Amino acid sequence: MFARVNLYYTVLRISIAERLVYRVDFALGTLMRFLPIVTQIFLWDAVFQGMSGGIKTIAGYNNHEMIAYYLLTMVGRAFSSMPGLASSIARDIRDGTIKKYLLQPIDMLSFILMSRLAHKLVYYAVAVFPFALVFWLCRDFFKGWPDAGTILAFIASLLMSFLLGFFMEATLGMIGFWFLEVSSLLFVYMLVSFFFSGQMFPPDIMPYPWPQVLKIIPLQYLAYFPTAVFLQKVTGAELAWGLAAEAFWVVFFFFSARTMFHYGLKRYSAYGG
Amino acid sequence: MSNITTYWRVFRTFARNSLIRDMTFRSNFIIDSISSLAWVFLNVVLYLQVFRFTNSIGDHTGWGRYEFYAFFSTGLIVNALAQMFFMTNIDEFTDLIRTGGLDFLLLKPIDTQFMISLRRIEWSSLSNLAAGIIVLVYSMTRLPHLPGMGQCVLYGVYLICGVAIYYSLMITLGASTVWMGRNLTLYDFWFYITTFSRYPMEIYTGQLGRPLRFAFTFIIPVLIVVNIPARLMVRPLESQNGWLAGFALLATAASVAASRWVFLKALAGYRSASS
User: Quick one: chain A helix, strand, coil %, rounded to 5?
Assistant: First the structure.
C-alpha cells in the first residue's frame, strides 16, 4: 500500500517538475485566459444598456449577476477543463506509446490522473494570483460572500467537476481503440461542451424547454452548476439533488472509462518497435 | 515582373496541392467544414438570445439587430480568410522553429516568409466564408439602405486590410517562438487578442474601456480589423469613419512592416535545433 502511494506521489512530483519547465509559456497562458472575460463584461454591459424599461434583468440575471456568472464559470472550468487529455490518449493508442503502460507496473488511468492533478496544482499555484486580482477588481459584481453551506457545496461541486471532466475526456480518448482518428469527434465534443456546460451563456436565458433539457445533461456540471451554486440560483433540495446527480455522473464516467480501457486493450495490437 | 509571376505560380501550386490533399481525405474535409460551421451556429444562437432581450448593443450606439449581424458576418469573413491562408501555416512555423525543420525552408531559393505563410491553404474555411457572406447579405437586405458600388469596393479593400493586420499579428507571435523556445499558447494568444475585435468598439466605454479601446486601436490595431469594414457597410455617413478609415490604411502598412522586421530579426536569431 505504502509503495503504491509512494509510486503515485513520485509520478505527481515528476509531473509538477515537468509542468514548470516551460514557465513563461505557462504563465503567459494563464494570464491570457482572463482576456475574454474583459470583453464579456463590456458586451453584457452594452446589452443591458441597450434594454428598455426600468428593471433590467435577463432570465433573473441582472447586469452584475451576469458578469459574476462568467467570472465564476472560469473557476469551474479551471477545475473541469482537461486540455488535450482525450487527444493525447487517442494519440498514444494510435502511435503505440500506450504499450509503455502495459509493460510497466503502473495503471494508465491512475498515472494520467496523477499527471493531470499535478498540472492542475501547478496551474492553481500560478493562477491563484491573477484569479484573486481579477475577482478583487470585479468584487462589485458580487453581492458578497455566500453562507458557509453554499461555499462547501460550491467546493464539493468543483472537486467533482474535476473528476467528471477527467473521466469524461478519458472515456472519449478511449474511443481511439476503435477509431484511428478521433480529432473531429473531439472538436465536436469541445463545441458541444462549450455550449452545454453553460460557458457561452447561462442556459436559463434560452426559451422553454431548453434550460430544462440542458440541465439534465452531465455537461452542465463542468461550469454551470458550480456557478449556479455560488450565485445561489440552486438552493435547498435542488442543490442536494444536483450534488447527488453530479456524484452519480462521476461514478458513471469512472466506470465507463475503466470499461472502455478494459475492452479496448483486448482489441489493441501494437506494431513496430 | 517575372518575380511576381514566379511567386504567383508557386502560390497556385501550393493552393492546388492543398486542394488535392483535402480532396484525398474528403470525409475529413467535410467534417472540418461542418464543425467550423457549428461554431458559427453557436455564436448565432448566442446573439439570437441577446436580441430577444434588447434592441441594440449599447445605448444609442447604432448597432441594432441587423447592423450587428452585419458586423458579426464581417468578423466571420475576415477570420475565415485569415484561417484559410495563414493560421495552419503559422502554427506549423512554430513547430518548424522548435524542431529545426526550418533549415529545409531556408535553403529554398524563395522568400522564406512567403514560403512559410502560404504553404497550405485551408480550403475547409470556405464554409465559414460562405456563412459570413450569407449572413451579411441577409442583414444588408433587412437594413433600410442597400450599399452602393463604391461601398462594396471599399468593404473589399478593408477586408484585405483586416486580414493583413491579423496576419501581421500571427506571424509576429509565430516568430517569437525563436526566443521563447516553445509557443503552445500561440492559438490561445491569438484567440484571446482577437476576442477584442469581435464586438463594436463602442462597447468599450468607461475608465477601463477607453484605454482598452485606445490600445487595441492604436497599439495592437485589432479593433479596426472588423470595425472599419462593418462601419463602412452599415453606417457609412458618420463623420468619425473618415479618419478611422484613413488610419486603418496606415495601421495596416505599419503592421505589415513591423511584422516583417520581427520575422527577419527572428530568422537572424534562429539556431537550428536539428542535426
Answer: 75, 0, 25
- CB distance A52–B55 less than 8 Å? yes
Task: Flag whether residue A119 sits within 8 Å of chain B, measured between CB atoms.
Answer: no
- Residue B190 pLDDT > 90, yes or no? no
**Cα of B9 to nearest chain A Cα, Å:** 33
A223: containing domain: 2-49+58-267
Task: Using a CB–CB cutoff of 8 Å, tell me whether B143 touches chain A.
Answer: no
Higher per-residue pLDDT: A36 or B120: B120
The verdict on residue A272 lying in a domain is no
Q: Does B46 touch chain A if contact means CB atoms closer than 8 Å?
A: yes
The enclosing H or E element of B156 equals helix B149-175
Mutate to test the interface with B, among A25, A26, A28, A52 (most CBs of B within 10 A): A25
| Best residue in B48, B51, B54, B97 for a mutation probing chain A (most A CBs within 10 Å) | B54
> Which residues on A lie below 8 Å from B50 (Cβ)?
47
Exposure b/e, B143-171, CB count within 10 A at least 16 = b: beeebeeebeebbebbbebbbbbbbbbbb
Residue A254, number of CB atoms within 10 A of its CB: 18
pLDDT of residue A197: 92
Number of domains comprising chain A: 1
User: Which pLDDT score, from 0 to 100, does residue B171 have?
Assistant: 92
Mean pLDDT (chain B) is 88
Assign B224 a pLDDT band (cuts: 50, 70, 90): very high
d(CA A236, CA A147): 13
Chain A residue nearest residue B189, CA to CA:
A32
Q: What is the mean pLDDT of residues A225-253?
A: 94
CB contact under 8 A, A194 and B192: no
* Amino acid identity, position A20: L
Most confident segment among A90-99, A116-125, B225-234: B225-234
Mutate one of A39, A62, A87 to test the B interface: name it (highest B CB count within 10 A).
A39
C-alpha neighbours within 13 Å on the C-beta side of residue B35: 16
Q: Is there a domain that residue A80 lies in?
A: yes
Q: Where does the pLDDT of residue A23 fall: very low under 50, low under 70, confident under 90, or very high at 90 and above?
A: low
Say yes or no to pLDDT of A106 above 90: no
- The C-alpha cell at B268 is 537572424
Residue type, A25: D
How much is the ipTM here? 0.84
pLDDT score, position A53: 72
In the predicted model, is pLDDT for residue B139 greater than 90?
A: yes
| Pairwise CB contact (< 8 Å): A50 & B54 | yes
* B207 touches A at CB < 8 Å: no
Query: Using one digit for the tens of pLDDT, what is the confidence trace for A165-184?
Result: 999 999 999 998 888 778 87
In a domain, A195, yes or no: yes
| Residue A273: inside a domain | no
Residue A140: Cβ within 10 Å count: 9
Asked if B28 reaches chain A (Cβ–Cβ under 8 Å), the answer is yes
